[in-house]
Amino acid sequence: MTKLSTLVGVTFFVALLLSACSAEESMTQSSTNQTVNDTKNWFETDLNKTNLKILDYVKEIRWNDAIVTNGEKGQIIEVPITLLDYITTTNKKAKKSNSDDDSTKLNDYHRLLFTKIDDKNYKCFDLQILTNENNFDNLDKNFNYYSIKGDFNGFVTIYDPSKQKVNSQEFKDGKRPIHKLTDRMDESADCTYLGWWLDDGTFKPLFLLYCTGTGEDYGGGYLGGYGDNGGGGGGGVGGYYPTPTIAERLQERIDETDLDNCTKDVLHKLENLTNEGDILNMLERFSPEGSIYDIKMSIGSMKYPGDLAETTRSATSYYVVNMVFDENYIKGIGNTSRPTDLSVATTMAHEIIHGYLINLMGENQACGASGICDFPTVYEAYVQQKITNNPNIVPAEIHKEMAEKYVNEIAKTIQQFDTGTTVGSDYPYQLYLDMAWAGLSETAYFNKIYPNDKTHKNFEDRKRILNRFNAEKLGVTYGGQTVKGKPCTK
């Protein structure tokens, strides 16, 4: 009887324990479901506040497969997403590996990552996983913010659209590899584009998503990351580092190999101006939008005689802009002197904005059906785009605004280049404004403001602008304008 009572008691205790465990699991699942529902409701109510471009190309958001984890950085909600058919994201890491060898090909997987701000609000991040693992399961709940699987090889990137910051982390066998400082500083910036692969194997980008930095200037590499175990990190949401601006990236990506020493010196001086004077800040002030590309600078012959430089998109790479400076101009062929450094600096600043506009708008839109990508065509296309995007603003006001912005930004840069002193909040000197205005001399707006009409009130200003331009270009006094810059030795 005692044995039977004991057996009944044990059986009852086990049943009670199992029931309690089941109830606890049920409560945990219920809590998880409520968390996901709350997140979903916020997301769908405040969709416009997330500011994630990738959402326009999402086929499915898998809320039923959401992954909820808790740890040092608080509660993290990850929701796997599927992109539209044929849409993908890629960057240099992926493209280097996208060969015929499937073992090295990097595939992209995506999730939305949410963190809670308060009882009613969340922050939304774009999470991208790149890996060559053919059997990678994006729905695997064991692969999450706080847990990286021990055999994972690839890259995890988290992008914060509200702060325009990115944190990217590489993993090898679930651990973060230790890179030498020199290796990290030698690595170039890597930018992720959304687009699709064409039948011929080339990638057609639609737009830039974000860029990651790897050098010490950008936070010493990947110090805050995804996953608490394996790699030994402390989570990534609190570990973001500032992402370099478009202009900073561009300045790193100028290939000067084919320039002569004198022209290289001008470029280096432009790059190393302090404060607001350098080309970095010139571009940021002119237009902070845009995407990353490489500039290949060289010296050669011109398609159209008389042009000082030609800037076009490379025929072999979507990401390269070719910038060719006229050999006759740079070497002063047919003249007694070479152009002054002020002339070359102005031309270089002008062409960098030229290339920036081509890349910003896309070649088809910037150059039109004619395929002519000279500066007046590209500049006018950019202004027309601004007019189209601002129907409530009088077109003449946009023409005026863009011309003044172009002139002021170039003038500030070349004034500091020439004088060594920043302009600050002051207005640039007239001499440098004239040099900048000369860059617009073939545009319709310039010829409207400064018409070639001796009876017009601005005709003398037109003469002064063009004479200043020619004096620096030829390295001699021209039309009463004496040379300000210094020519290279011929």
TrEMBL record:
Signal peptide range: 1-23
Species the sequence originates in: Flavobacterium gilvum
Listed name of the protein: Uncharacterized protein
Organism ancestry: Bacteria, Pseudomonadati, Bacteroidota, Flavobacteriia, Flavobacteriales
Tree of life domain: Bacteria
Keywords from the named record: Signal
